[in-house]
Every structure is written in C-alpha cells, then in structure tokens.
Automatic annotation (TrEMBL):
Record-annotated N-acetyltransferase domain positions: 82-224
One Gene Ontology molecular-function label: acyltransferase activity, transferring groups other than amino-acyl groups
PROSITE patterns xrefs: GNAT
Protein name: Acetyltransferase (GNAT) domain-containing protein
Alphabetical keyword list: Transferase
Record organism: Virgibacillus salinus
Domain of life according to the entry: Bacteria
Length: 224
C-alpha cells in the first residue's frame, strides 16, 4: 500500500478495513479502488476536488485548526469550577455518550450512528488509559472532561445540565493552562466549521486560525 495508511483505531468500530489516503495524485486515488474499506482523505480548501469525486469520494467536513501561543492564553475564572485527574471513569464515558452527536462520522451516511457513537466511546477510553483526560468539576459534581495529547486539545465534553451556564470558558482555559505546564509553547486544536459555538469558545481563549482542511470520505466494496 504505497499511498494508504491503515487506521486500526477506526477498523475496530466499523467492522471493515479503514484507511487514510496520504496523497491526492491519481495514483493514490486509484489505490483506493483495490481494497474494500472506508477511506479518509484531507485536502487544502483551494485544491480542486474533481479527481476525488471521479474516484467516488464525497465531501464530509471542513476542519478549522486554530493555534494559541502560551502568552496569549486568556484565563477565565468561575466560582466552584476546577479540574482534576481524580475522577470516576464511568462518569466521563456517560458524558462522552451525549456530547458527540454531530461529528463527521455521525454525518457519514455510510456509517450507522451507533458505530459512530462507539468510535467516540472507544477514543475516550483510550485517552483515559493514557492519562490524557481531566475531569471538569462543578462543586463536587463531574460536569465534563477535557482530553488532550501532547500539544493538541482533542475533545471537550460538558454534561447537558451544565451547558449554557457560562462554564465552558473557565473549564477549557483551565485545561489549556495545565497542558501548557507540560512544556509546550503553543497549543492547537481541530474544529468542524459547522461547530460555531466551539470556534467562538477557542477564539475567546486566544486561539487564532492557522489552517483549514477539507475532509472527504469514500467506501469501496459492500460497506458496513
């Protein structure tokens, strides 16, 4: 597989082989016809998708990738909020289950929603095992979680009853501040262009747009 990278973390959820395509040349696209499975391909927004459409790819999402330098992080305080790594893992899983209903795999008509749910649940479990999650606490209750890896902010989930209460800025800025303590000079994240609330949140914390990519999917063979 010259132009394909297997993604076993997705294969375990979708009951078929899964791949990332590493280039947009026709040689790479031809390779996606050789193996049954689900494919993800990311391109710059100014690149023409003509060849992708010819080979059966379909547009899935646009990801905006903001970056925040350490000195530009805006911290927000909110009474009774804190973060901790001392939490009940099952509570985090329950919050994750209700937090990710509009991801690109939920929008993919070739992936059942139940499988998209499983993908996020397994991802959160993996991050728990790697100690890359902070629980977001409101008083003594687990109100959400903040997941990261190295310099990347990966996931933010807040329990439904705590949404729209002005807590997201405090929780997220506290998570970023802890992440900066690991020695990073800047943090980055990836947000769907459709997720305006999340874009506004990270902009308020000091993140600024650095890159944008369009995401395409394809299924070769019988699918799920």
């Amino acid at each position: 597989m010259k132009h394909l990278r297997e993604t076993p973390w997705d294969k375990r959820n979708f009951n078929m082989d899964t791949f990332e395509v590493t280039g947009t040349r026709e040689e790479a696209l031809q390779e996606t016809n050789k193996y049954n499975g689900h494919y993800t391909l990311k391109i710059g927004p100014l690149e023409s998708p003509e060849l992708l459409l010819k080979y059966g790819f379909y547009y899935m999402d646009t990801l905006i990738e903001p970056v925040c330098k350490k000195e530009n992080l805006h911290l927000f305080d909110k009474d009774a909020t804190s973060i901790t790594k001392d939490y009940n893992p099952s509570e985090i899983i329950l919050i994750a289950e209700e937090s990710f209903k509009h991801g690109r795999f939920h929008r993919d008509f070739n992936i059942p929603n139940s499988m998209a749910d499983t993908r996020y649940m397994n991802w959160v479990k993996d991050l728990q095992e790697k100690d890359q999650i902070y629980a977001l606490m409101y008083e003594d209750d687990t109100a959400g979680f903040f997941a990261y890896e190295d310099d990347k902010v990966l996931l933010l989930g807040i329990k439904e009853e705590y949404r729209s209460r002005g807590l997201a800025k405090a929780f997220t800025s506290q998570g970023c501040a802890e992440q900066f303590k690991h020695g990073h000079n800047e943090l980055r994240t990836s947000i769907s262009a459709a997720n305006v609330a999340s874009l506004n949140l990270f902009y308020s914390l000091g993140f600024r747009l650095m890159n944008t990519v369009d995401v395409y999917h394809k299924v070769t063979g019988p699918g799920v």
